[in-house]
């Protein structure tokens, strides 16, 4: 029986594990993929202490720090439930059927990339359709690509892709961007980025692989853009499926509802990071780390006092 089970191998989960282990709590941390959404950040310029650092490098440092205190497991979880012991606790069922039990639980699964849900998207996934421009832009050196979206990930992705692609079409349904001004300025410096604003992609076209996208309105005389790759960067959704099945409450936008102590409504259950309604839903490395620390402290207090 572990003192705490942490689900999530991202910024929030790693931070929580560092704190719980330093509290001398027997810690089990698990997740389907190491690094979480941090792995998709090409450049991080707002992590205190680092003027600039790559997301994967920062996540590797988080992981190394966590591993200095405890082990981690990379595995998919199929079920989370209350354990049957008289003194309570929780049970994780892993994909292979193995189970792990703990006295408390922290949900820190982060978020998943949002899909466009248009014809051709699923068919050409991995054949020109990708969900991380900063990860995959290198494969389209000297070719034409489209980036879909107007937030931080889309604008950053367009700026990164423009370093290697021949031309980058940034398709956004609005006339203004929601992204951080820094990345908007960086993007506008790139002469090979073409802004396709107030347009929606209604279909991804191809034959064996992507050949273009169909727009809902014409752009420069045609509703079709001929491209070799499509980077879909339209935001993300909190990964709350396991928490919801367990009975945790979600807010009106699907985030795990937590209070100021990161308590998730069920005694012994806590949340941290992008999966929660905390920090005004401001999904940043700094807020995820902060919530992970608060959740760990709350776990420690709960195990001491039961509250």
Characterize the structure shown.
The structure is a single chain. The protein is of the alpha/beta class. It folds into two domains: 182 residues, FAD/NAD(P)-binding domain; 104 residues, FAD/NAD(P)-binding domain (3-Layer(bba) Sandwich), CATH 3.50.50.60. It is elongated and about 70 Å long.
> Whole-number average pLDDT?
93
Number of strands: 17
Q: What is the CATH topology of the largest domain?
A: FAD/NAD(P)-binding domain
The tally of helices reads: 7
Q: How many domain regions?
A: 2
Please provide the ordered H/E string of secondary-structure elements.
EHEHEEEEEEHEHEHEEEEEEHEH
Topology at a glance:
Blueprint: E1 2-7, H1 11-22, E2 27-31, H2 55-67, E3 72-74, E4 77-82, E5 90-94, E6 99-107, E7 111-113, E8 129-130, H3 133-136, E9 144-148, H4 152-161, E10 167-172, H5 181-188, E11 193-197, E12 201-206, E13 210-219, E14 222-226, E15 229-232, E16 236-238, H6 241-246, E17 269-271, H7 285-305
Parallel strand pairs: 1-2, 1-6, 2-3, 6-17, 8-15, 9-10, 9-15, 10-11
Antiparallel strand pairs: 4-5, 5-6, 7-16, 12-13, 13-14
